[in-house]
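Progress report, Aim 2. The chain analyzed during this reporting quarter is listed below.
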Amino acid sequence: MRIIIYGAGGIGGGIGARLALAGHEVVLICRGQHLQAINSRGLLLKAPDGEFRVAAAAVGHPRELDWREGDVVLLAMKTQDTETALRDLEQAAGTAVPVFCAQNGVENERLASRRFEHVYATLVAMPATFLVPGEVIASAAPLSGCLHSGRYPAGSDVTAEEVCGALASSHFHAQPSTDAMALKYRKLILNLGNGVEVIVGRSAWSAGGELGEFVEHVRQEALECYQAAGIVAVSSAEYAERVTSHYRAQDVGGESRSASSTLQSILRGHETTEVDYLNGEIELIGHLHGVPTPYNSVVREVATRMAAARAQPGSVTLEELRAMVAATVNRRAARP
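Predicted structure tokens for the chain:
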């Protein structure tokens, strides 16, 4: 089995490096200066257990590969880039290649299922940093993270077992899971803080105080949407048992991970953000099932606008954000 990592940034690069170090055949697909750096000097993985220079094969596009029987694709780009990536993948590899969506949110599997016969949901719980071309920091220990996978929309099979086996041998907690989407819906609730980070410029994942209170409102809207839509997500306790209990973020080189993957994209100069598919997913469910989502709507709108304008994270204060939510509530209440 050859594993093609399509989108070898922080998550994809970290997974690919660990797989290669464990002796698995891996090809990375990435672009720009990152691709140039990997091809010239290898991919540098920095982790609590050391630094590793990985001489992995890397290309810039799926058409550059000689596709063969037994290839498996692991998608790891941000959701806003998924549709283009899937189109290019189909044209190069056909529709029968298994596709594992190792991405945040729940939209990628839907997009892939429009084109491919075998689609898998992969929960990604992996603290990683990608800010320097050719370098990835995987900051968790004793394992690099959790990558449970199963067929989409549910179930498991031999391919999921083989991929999870490869990952489990490569410094990850990875189990074939018939309910991978229920895990991903719980992870989505956690990722709703990413958009807040883009706006206020500081960590919101487990923040306390006024910021924590704001994020709690964002997440509570999601739970209300899930209930109205009949969406099943594993409980917080089950998620902790199956996922976060198996690793802890550590300092690497004296530095701790200080930004979500979403904020990292903004810091690298990207003008688009996956927030449309995180907070925007909750906004969509709310529209479909009659649940108000003013917090998620404002976070999505403001984060998207700031990214497009290359506004500095933190240039909108929490007080201003709360005022926007209040104005949105009032405006919607005034509609006939």
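The chain is about 45% helix and 15% strand. The two ends are 59 Å apart (CA to CA). These observations will guide the mutagenesis work planned for the next reporting period.
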